[in-house]
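[Q] Does anyone have a clean C-alpha cell version of this?
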Amino acid sequence: MRKKLSSHKLSVAHEKACKIISQSKKNTIEMFSSKMQINQHEITYCIFRTVYHIAKINRPISDLKKLILLQVENGLDMGRILQSDHACADIVYHISNEMRTKLVKYILHNDNKVGFMIDESTTMSKKSALSICLRVNIPEINIVNSIYFDLIELTNAEVSSIANSFICALHDFGFDNSFLLRNWVSFACDGASNMLDKKAGVAQLLLNQFPNLILWHCSNHQLELAVNDVVRDILPICHMKSFFDKLYSICSASPKNKKRTGTVKLNSIGRILGTRWVSSRARSVMAV
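[A] Here you go.
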C-alpha cells in the first residue's frame, strides 16, 4: 500500500490533479470572465461616445460605420456589435432619455420654476405630432435654459387630444399635478385657433386646470403674422412676390430654363415671401 501511495504521488496523473486543484483555487474562470466583461464595457463606452458625438453635432446616424472604421484604423478595438444604424438610433434614444430623466430629477429636487412651449405639426408620414420644449430657471448659473423635451405622436389634432397627450407626457416623466400647480409659470404656443381659442383652446383647458399659468402667444409667430399682413396690404410688394414666385417655379425644376437665366441665382433667392420665418425672408430679399 505504501509503495502504491508513493508511486502514485510521483505519477503524472497526480501532478496534473494537483495543478487542477491549485488552478481552481485561483478562480481562473471567474477572472477570465471578469476580464472579458471589462473589455466589453470598454468597447461599449467607445461606441456610446461615438454615437453621442454624432448626435451632438447633428450628423446622420449613417456616419457611425465610417467613424468606427476610422477608429479601428487608428488601432482602437471597437468590437463587432452595436454598429448598425438601428443600434445607433436606439443608443441616441437611450442617452437622451437618461439625460432627460436626470434633468427632471434635478428640477423636482430643487423645486425649480418651469415653463413649456408646444407646437403641433405633421410629419412626413402625415401623422400629427406634438413638439414640447422646456424652459427652466437654474439658480446655480442664473440662466433660464430652453431645452428640447419630447416629441409625441397624437391620435388626432383635436383640442382635448392635444391637451391630454401633453399632460400625460409630463406625468410620464415625473411632473405631477402638485409640482405643476406650484412651479409651472408659463405656457407658450402659436396663434392657431385650436391652441389659443379663448373658449375651448388648449391654453384655456390648461388654464382651467392650472389657474396660475401665464399664457403667451409666440413672439416670432406674432411678428410673422404682422409681416404677412403688411405684405398683403402693399400692392407693389404683392406684384414683386408674384413675379419672383413665377420665375422661381419656371426655372427651379428645369435645368434648361435654369441655364437660360444666366447668372441669376434663383436657388439662393427661392420664394422671397413664402411660408417662412422673417429671418429667412430677410435673407431672400437681400439676395434679390
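[Q] Thanks! Anything notable?
[A] The chain has 14 helices and five strands.
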